């Protein structure tokens, strides 16, 4: 089985092979223009009719419900302002939002018969022990940072100058270096600028003429 070629074969108009990726990139793009023909129909309120007639999945319906805690707070705030029908509608919304999978994963499910407010994640005040721990932590963070200084350098006993002079004289001596010759001073060196005089003469041979002529690519049928 032959491998798939990554390039297109030469043609009569273009006698060279070219990668297929470049051929695909060279194709011009097709631009679309809105002619307002065949557009979706909208209602008077600006809603698509297809959105009203379409069916939604259970996952989308569960996500569409408001948070359970918000519904309960709204019911408590507007208990004396809303009508009984509207409150019944809110109770039905609370039941649906309480039975979704997302409320179970968020640990927000409550017992509607007992109306336990503890199951809802409400903010509660700190106890005395928690407040004490918090203040101890703040005092620990607000304390100045400890500076860890390095220990002082312990120097040895002083030495007289007569004892140090031999070492000082040894350090002031000029070190011995090995001198190397330059490359141009070596015997085997050959200057690249100096070439034989015949090398500068250009003679066209039959071989160079043959290499200079373009090749004819055979056309495939």
Automatic annotation (TrEMBL):
Domain of life of the source: Eukaryota
Entry-linked Pfam families: THEG (PF14912)
Lineage: Eukaryota, Metazoa, Ecdysozoa, Arthropoda, Hexapoda
SMART domains, alphabetized: THEG (SM00705)
Matching InterPro entries: THEG
Name the UniProt record assigns to this protein: Uncharacterized protein
């Amino acid at each position: 089985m032959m491998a798939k070629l990554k390039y297109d074969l030469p043609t009569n108009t273009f006698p060279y092979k070219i990668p297929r990726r470049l051929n695909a990139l060279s194709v011009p793009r097709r631009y679309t223009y809105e002619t307002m023909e065949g557009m979706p129909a909208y209602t008077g309120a600006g809603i698509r009719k297809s959105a009203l007639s379409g069916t939604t999945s259970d996952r989308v319906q569960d996500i569409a419900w408001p948070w359970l805690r918000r519904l309960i707070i709204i019911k408590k705030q507007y208990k004396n302002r809303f009508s009984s029908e509207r409150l019944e509608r809110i109770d039905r919304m609370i039941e649906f939002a309480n039975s979704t999978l997302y409320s179970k994963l968020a640990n927000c499910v409550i017992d509607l018969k007992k109306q336990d407010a503890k199951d809802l994640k409400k903010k509660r005040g700190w106890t005395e022990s928690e407040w004490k721990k918090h203040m101890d932590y703040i005092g620990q963070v607000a304390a100045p940072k400890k500076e860890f200084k390095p220990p002082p350098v312990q120097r040895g006993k002083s030495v007289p100058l007569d004892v140090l002079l031999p070492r000082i004289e040894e350090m002031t001596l000029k070190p011995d270096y090995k001198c190397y010759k330059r490359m141009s001073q070596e015997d085997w060196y050959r200057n690249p600028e100096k070439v034989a005089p015949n090398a500068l003469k250009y003679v066209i041979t039959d071989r160079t003429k043959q290499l200079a002529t373009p090749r004819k690519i055979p056309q495939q049928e």
